[in-house]
Automatic annotation (TrEMBL):
Protein name (record): Heme chaperone HemW
UniProt xrefs under PANTHER family: COPROPORPHYRINIGEN III OXIDASE, RADICAL S-ADENOSYL METHIONINE DOMAIN-CONTAINING PROTEIN 1, MITOCHONDRIAL
Main location as per UniProt: cytoplasm
Family: Belongs to the anaerobic coproporphyrinogen-III oxidase family. HemW subfamily.
Taxonomic source organism: Paeniglutamicibacter terrestris
PROSITE patterns given in the database record: RADICAL_SAM (PS51918)
UniProt-listed InterPro entries: Aldolase_TIM (IPR013785), Coproporphyrinogen-III_oxidase (IPR034505), Elp3/MiaA/NifB-like_rSAM (IPR006638), HemW-like (IPR004559), rSAM (IPR007197), rSAM_sf (IPR058240)
Protein localization: Cytoplasm
Keywords (A to Z) from UniProt: 4Fe-4S, Chaperone, Cytoplasm, Heme, Iron, Iron-sulfur, Metal-binding, S-adenosyl-L-methionine
SUPFAM superfamilies on file: Radical SAM enzymes
């Protein structure tokens, strides 16, 4: 089942935000995340807040979901205005899940129209939806493009049937290329998502997946190391010895292969797990997260952030629907991280992107650690002289270790 929500303080029913959220808001970007919690099947590695039709139960439905999440968007606009947060254009929108494209394209366009109405969508806004290759058609992708979507992120994961089977992915790998072609024909920018390190995936399997993804000529590629979350089906299979465990050295080897092949094809890394053809092809929505922008997260289990305040919605779609019908905030809890937590998060996020983190923003222990990180080949020397912490390829492989040294723990 999906992972648990964090602990925090109770969230008020009216959703109003404290005055601290107003400070500096005009200088921060504003984005919207829309969570679509529906999947045709649950993948064995997934612990996201998603539900199949069998798991959903009563009290909510896919058919009424666009109306419910649109109501939260209208509620959110009122909350921000009443709380005194200055009105800003929405610079990025991201529909994630789950499988957003299980909903009709008209429903997704309807939600986007509500965002445009309530918050003003910037003329050049990036609007992305995730999609499984078997959940789109040429007609649905064209309808999304006509409705204002600019980008689609396709869950490819692998090009090798036995790897997809281990992950419980049900799409035909040949369908990915067709979905990419349809998206391009509709005028959408295209990203493909890959996962490496699946039990039973050989080096050649992974090389095949990377080369196949590149053959589709996408604008952007994400490649994520498989993480086994407790409570997932794959976790249970590994614990029972039915499937081999993941291996850190295998992950490292496959990361190096991916980076080499991506670079040879003209892709540039800009975050540890993300590569793009050009700077313009980077995912601006994710960059807004990494750079500390504000965002409203709509939907069950969605998280939001405004001016340092974080909150998260109730998880189950039925509980969410009940709050929406009552006209109260769907938030389950909220928190304002203290200075130490904010510092850790800032270092964790900024050191993972190619722009790096200002050395001046590090605490003394972190500034002292820079020389050792350069000597160990984990930080680019030229970047350090330019007052930034920027990771080398080896530093990207050991990003968590770099962070621990910068934070002195």
């Amino acid at each position: 089942m999906p992972s648990a929500l964090p602990l925090g303080d109770p969230a008020p029913a009216d959703g109003l935000l404290p005055a601290s959220c107003i400070t500096g808001a005009a200088e921060r970007t504003f984005s919207v995340y829309v969570h679509i919690p529906f999947c045709a099947v649950r993948c064995g590695y997934c612990d996201f807040n998603t539900y199949t039709a069998h798991e959903l139960g009563s009290g909510s439905s896919q058919e009424s979901y666009a109306e419910a999440v649109s109501a939260e968007i209208a509620f959110g606009a009122t909350v921000l205005e009443t709380s005194g947060v200055p009105r800003r254009e929405v610079s990025t929108v991201f529909f994630g899940g789950g499988t957003p494209t299980l909903l009709p394209a008209a429903d997704l366009v309807r939600v986007l129209a509500e965002i445009r109405t309530q918050w003003d969508l910037a003329p050049d806004a990036e609007v992305t939806t995730e999609a499984n290759p078997d959940s789109v058609t040429s007609e649905s992708l064209q309808a999304l493009a006509d409705g204002g979507f600019t980008r689609v992120s396709i869950g490819m994961q692998s090009a090798v049937p036995h790897v997809l089977a281990t992950l419980d992915r049900t799409h035909n790998p040949d369908r990915v290329g067709q979905a990419v072609a349809w998206a391009k024909e509709a005028g959408l920018a295209v990203s493909v998502d890959l996962i490496y390190g699946t039990p039973g995936e050989s080096i050649e399997d992974w090389r095949t997946s990377v080369q196949t993804a590149l053959s589709y000529d996408p604008d952007h590629i994400s490649a994520y190391a498989l993480i086994i979350e407790e409570g997932t089906r794959l976790f249970g299979q590994i614990r029972r010895g039915e499937v081999a465990d993941i291996d850190d050295d295998d992950h490292a080897d496959k990361y190096l292969i991916a980076d080499e092949l991506f670079a040879a094809a003209g892709f540039q890394w800009y975050e540890v797990s993300n590569w793009s053809k050009t700077e313009e092809n980077r995912c601006l929505h994710n960059l807004a997260y990494w750079r500390g922008g504000d965002w409203w997260g709509a939907g069950p289990g969605a998280h939001s952030h405004v001016g340092g305040l974080r909150w998260w919605n109730v998880k189950h779609p039925a509980a969410y629907q009940q709050r929406i019908d009552a006209g109260t905030s769907p938030a389950a809890g909220r928190e304002t991280p203290d200075a130490d937590a904010r510092y850790l998060e800032k270092a964790m996020l900024l050191t993972r992107i190619v722009d790096g983190m200002n050395i001046a923003d590090l605490q003394p222990a972190g500034r002292t650690a820079i020389a050792g990180l350069i000597a160990d080949g984990l930080v680019v020397p030229e970047a350090a002289f330019a007052k930034k912490v920027v990771l080398t390829l080896q530093g990207r492989l050991l990003a968590d270790a770099v962070l621990r040294r910068l934070l002195d723990f």
